[in-house]
Amino acid sequence: MNTNTIKPGMKPKHQRLVLLGLALAAMAGALALGISALGTSATYFYAPSDVFAHAPAPGEAIRLGGLVQKGSVQRLPDGLTLAFRVTDNARDVPVRYTGIVPDLFREGQGVITEGHFDAQGTFIATSVLAKHDEKYMPPEVAGSLHKVQGKVTS
Amino acid sequence: MIVELGHAALWLAAAFALLQALAPWLRAPADDAERWTGLAVPAALAQALLVSLAFGSLVWAFATSDFSVKLVAENSHTMKPMLYKLSGVWGNHEGSMLLWILVMAVAGAAVSLADSPLGDRFRALVLSMQGIIALGFYAFLLAASNPFARLAIAPTQGNGLNPLLQDPGLAFHPPMLYAGYVGLSVAFAFAVAALLERRVGPAWAAAVRPWVLAAWAALGCGITLGSWWAYYELGWGGYWFWDPVENASLMPWLAATALLHSVAVLAKRDALRNWTILLAVVGFSLSMIGTFVVRSGLLTSVHAFAVDPARGAFLLVLLALYIGGALLLYALRASTVAVGEGFAPVSREGALVANNLLLAAGLGVVFVGSGYPLLVDVLGVGPISVGPPYFNATFGPLMIPLVLLMAVGPFLTWGAARTDKLARKLAVPGLLAVALALYAFAVWDVRAAFSLIGFALSAWLGVATLAILWGRMPWRTPRATWGMALAHLGVAFTLFGITASGALTRELLVNLRLGESAEVAGYTMKLVDVAPVAGANWTALEATLDVSRGGQPLTVLHPQARLYTSPMMDTTEAAIHTRINGDLYAVLGKPDGSGRWQLHVWWKPFVIWIWAGGLIMALGGALSMTARASARRSAAQPVGALVAA
């Protein structure tokens, strides 16, 4: 079997340079791919107050987080759609979600919803995440509540 | 008392880790160096024994529900089934760090007991590196998170374990994952020792290969178990969420995958020396970052047991020291590693280089996607999340050329490969790939290009991999070839499962009264009953769903809405009927107040193939590991020539 496999004129040292170039190109390509995809697919997190401050365009995919407002949860006649309001103790936003809500979805509890606003300003949630256990508060929600409370007290 | 003994054993183990770390460096003037170096192996064995004792004593405390131990009181409960009392040992921060140390010590003992083809001095250096890494974690455990801390007043009952974690799949997920992470520490230690000793070369690659394979297989198994758990336990049928915590385990796996292929090139062709060393360093660094990210509370999820910035800072410093130190050594020594052999572009090694580049690029985009939200948060731009759309748009396209090449690579020989027969060998896989894509298009009505490519690639890879084995005597085929073929076949299985379940899932969300029926993908579900049931530490509402197809009764599903008593927590227990061609997945929701029950039912075609593929990959890795690295001649034989013969 032919054991000498080096291409004529291609010394290992040169080949190493070529490989290095390829590796750098691959990494640069991955980085460029990643960053361009981030621009189009990163989802921004909004607290209800943020929605009033700078409203996302209808249809834009965002995350909306806060507390489920007490007394706001209603089941629509189809039996599958829930209407409720998400609040950060300053402003609140109406949300609709069709499906089975997570086990820990409750009034007064932290929640993160993913979806978009419709033309009427109702947030159409495609998924609802509730806190995982008693110790857990989604960090974004904790952060936004803190912010708003600070604003109210100061 | 037993717990105090465990605590003492942990301190002693740390002392032996120190001895292990110092052994190859100690030189008493009148003494010969050999004798000190010889201490590394007994020290590693003693350390493993002592950590096992420490871990055993903690297991004992959990098994006997000794609530005077803080950790037990916070995480266990007398009513919990024994399996979960035991898995509760590592279902918390301190215990999981102790498990990490245990696995690390066991790996050290394995290094001590296994053959040492590179000599005793090299082994002592590897053990020294392991000792140094372990010392950091001992310091962390003993100073910042002592698992053996007692409470002044023992409560009469414990807090219990998060019910989501009370699951057999999850009981074994962390140990497997840790075996993988820690296994990569062996590769890391080998790499550092090789840099110190300037022994980067084929012999080194052959020696490190079994450890890389073991780590890779364990990591793959751990990831598979975690994904399977998420699927059946979280109650919405997803199996991979591109959650940062999942990515933290995927990245070391990708690095290990690249590493085990580059190790093969180094062993066979003496090429890719620096790159292989770098991958070994990066692989374990990512494992540590993974542990850090999960344990520090930087990411809050079901995995983050406690949010404690002090611990996070400790782990961060540890991480910076180890990774920084290793990279510094690499930077200083890499240029002194002699240039290895070159090679022809169209060859087995050429394909493996392409594999490495694509895997590294895949690793890069996952890293960017996982790290970006943290970066943005630190910069204070506002929280963002990077989800599946990003990863599907970046990681997916990179995997297409990778899978294309995976089918071709094994047909190429080491050294300049002849390509004249290649087209003939790949004709059948190519035809079947097109046929499956056409079938999916025409019969399954798949229109998404990405899904059609997925189907084609899974057939392409699966058939080409079978073709490697076709016509060979099973018992005369080298185990390494079997391992490779199994691992590649596993990828084909997983890819097919992901594609099919993604493209063909049907779902049904209904409100049913007792006696009413609904249909999904040809399966009729009739809600017969909803009744209360009780288990050891939970009560539940359980639905009875009669499933039939074309009038033939098929099975009965019992989805539950459970309420655990300690701690109080609702969970959804999905009912799953698994068939080779798909799963029926039913979830019971809440009653709507007028006698109707919410039901969410999915038909998920071929979803079980995803995890079957993961296990097949791991099995392939394990099989390869047992192949002697010295079987160089048989493995070097061109696979394609045998197929053509």
TrEMBL record, chain B:
Record-annotated membrane-spanning stretches: 6-26, 38-63, 97-115, 176-196, 208-230, 250-267, 274-293, 313-332, 353-375, 395-414, 426-444, 450-470, 482-504, 606-625
Primary location: membrane
Compartment(s): Cell inner membrane
GO biological process, alphabetically ordered: cytochrome complex assembly
Cytochrome c-type biogenesis protein CcmF C-terminal domain mapped to chain residues: 316-628
Keyword Cell inner membrane: yes
A GO MF label: heme transmembrane transporter activity
Top-level taxon in the UniProt lineage: Bacteria
GO CC terms: plasma membrane
Membrane topology: Multi-pass membrane protein
Protein purpose: Required for the biogenesis of c-type cytochromes. Possible subunit of a heme lyase.
Family classification: Belongs to the CcmF/CycK/Ccl1/NrfE/CcsA family.
Protein name: Heme lyase CcmF/NrfE family subunit
Organism lineage string: Bacteria, Pseudomonadati, Pseudomonadota, Alphaproteobacteria, Sphingomonadales
